[in-house]
């Protein structure tokens, strides 16, 4: 850049900087559903260009010595602004220097990143043409070789001579036909064998092609056929979309014996419901198993889950239900059995680390049948595993087809609920056919200590459902990168968005109460959300707790027929933001409003100033903390001062029932003014760090409200009203029996006091300070807390000046009541407070 003078260079740099500021300021005019990324990406290069202009000006020698510090300051300011813009872009999943087309472009980028799993690349699904499987000049196709570490050096990868692509269709179709199951085999996985078994049984009963319909090439009937060049393509749902798993037809065999080291299908003996007879030779089964194992990282995986494998293979919605806590067996049987009779659900079971002698620990089982007989509820269960511990016995039994005779057995529903740990379900998507989907990513924290800085995206769901529909399903799936990377703890928070007359301000409230943390490190989280009305708006927050990596996710929503769904991400870039990181201590962890210690919770003065562009504004408040703690945030008509009692009429907006890990509230038409913001946990005494963030399109100023008595000398006296000291009110005739606190004041001072009950009770209290008379008796009354009150925060003596000397404070109840009490006293000078009785 050629500069003719100092003024010329300064003008050019200032013009560029002002243009960058103007572009960034336009964020305030964006509608809530508009992505801020395009605007941020537009302002970033302008700030960089302005910084370069200031730098060039400084190096030109044209800047007068008296102005050098001023120009350097401007140079640093635009650089700092550029760095903040860059961090904000990365938090939203973008990257500076890359072209972007808003949310659509970012979602495509998420899916592109999701193609790489366990060092393999699985591109988005495109149905292959038949020519891909012909033998060309290249000859037979060879894919990536999968690892079998525990048999390294003893594996022969070859096509099996015992498998067939034809001849089994007639045996398998229809309820009266033969039944086929899949045995685990050496080097295979029990969950995949169980998943393929329930697919085979569903195909037999209902004429479907679950599993086999996912493998290419196919014939005209949609059944898999042998590839001429050895190449096969498996269609799997991976990392947010259907993807292609490309593999060859080679399967692992023991090098010395030729024993298959993969899952094989077997027919049930027609004369027995529990014995297996022969290998059906269905060649597609070990190939589908190979493709699933490839997506999971190879044959050496630590284990999977049938519902996850079935979701990958069929797209049927996965649901994992613990049978150990909060399980309603009658309700669940009715729900599952009703769907089972219509072929709308696949059922598998899982055991935990401890189980009875009949079952194998940490093992997957397939449910072949559910029925009701003579008032009893029966499940027919298949064990795909091999129970012997000797490797030699396993191989010889497979070779001789001498399999465990109790591979199929029946149990009652009550026995299942007490013997297994997990009920795994996959639901046919036709039950809730209306769907919408979004992809995004949680940002990478700058350090493990900054994990609370992870930005959780917000979504508005506008819905309409037909009369009688009461439920929608939300499925949150985190994307995997490697089998060696631990999954993050994730959760879905859902808030009801409604208008609250008479203010007509749109508010958010929790629609249900969380009784335990919703966070889980499962791959998928399914939330079945009950709707209060046939149309409305929900705020949905996919939440991640801590973690050190960027994690992508997919959010799917399922609704009944004739519903409409519109899911849009909300821009979180309002022009004014203030964030505070703080820690709950033993002094400030006051608990919920029903606790007398609620008044000690962290409180903030929230000042919203008038803006020349608008009268009222949008306010969004979020709290992030430990996932094991239930949080709440409330905006109160408190004029920026400490709130001691939280009454419903005093709450402008709140996050509703306490939610684990995070709390969020929003109001879209708030007036400028000063409010009190309260952060609390459900249980008092819960300690931990949290991050409070306030966003608005009005200027925001957030400041801490000091604890009561801050800056003064304090004393705490704890006592009990007993049978001997519960004197009651003065008119009761026994007032002198009440406990007495002796105050020794070395000099005149301002004093303040509060009396409350540590354990909530509707007992009216009073605190009165007297001069000490001769003989240590009560003298003249100096000050009182006023009429007896049963407020949960107790009673208070406001600041009053006392002369030097000895005084006596008397805590009392209106009637003779026995129980504990606590008195807090503050003074401007050091003083002594001792309980006399």
UniProtKB/TrEMBL annotation:
Gene Ontology biological-process entries: proteolysis
Residue ranges constituting the Calpain catalytic domain according to the UniProt record: 155-429
Pfam annotation, one family: Peptidase_C2
InterPro entries: Calpain_III, Calpain_III_sf, PalB/RIM13, Papain-like_cys_pep_sf, Peptidase_C2_calpain_cat
This protein's name: Calpain catalytic domain-containing protein
Coiled-coil features, chain-numbered ranges: none
Lineage top rank: taxon: Eukaryota
